[in-house]
Amino acid sequence: MAEPDSRLDDLEIRIAHQERTIDDLSRTVAEQWARVDLLTRQVAALHERLREMAERPTAPGDEPPPPHY
């Protein structure tokens, strides 16, 4: 049977590793959330621009001819 001090040391080491892992995971989740938030805002802005473009009436003569003409 292992000595009580040795078992206590092992538990403290495991807890320290678990705390570090939890901190790393928490930081990763926070970074990913910030990235998702940024991407969500960018998609919303693009959606709005596409909606505005779709609502804008265009006549065939409004656009310049392509360069190959």
Structure description:
The protein contains 1 helix and no strands. The protein is 75% helix and 0% strand. The chain has 69 residues and is mostly helical.
Summarize the topology.
Layout: H1 4-55
Shape: rod-shaped
Q: What is the helix content?
A: over 70%
Count of β-strands: 0
Point out poorly predicted stretches: none
Task: Identify the notable features of this structure and list them briefly.
single chain; 69 residues; mainly alpha; rod-shaped; SlyX; Protein SlyX homolog
Would you kindly provide a brief summary of this structure?
The chain is mainly alpha-helical. The chain contains one helix and no strands. It comes from Methylobacterium nodulans (strain LMG 21967 / CNCM I-2342 / ORS 2060).
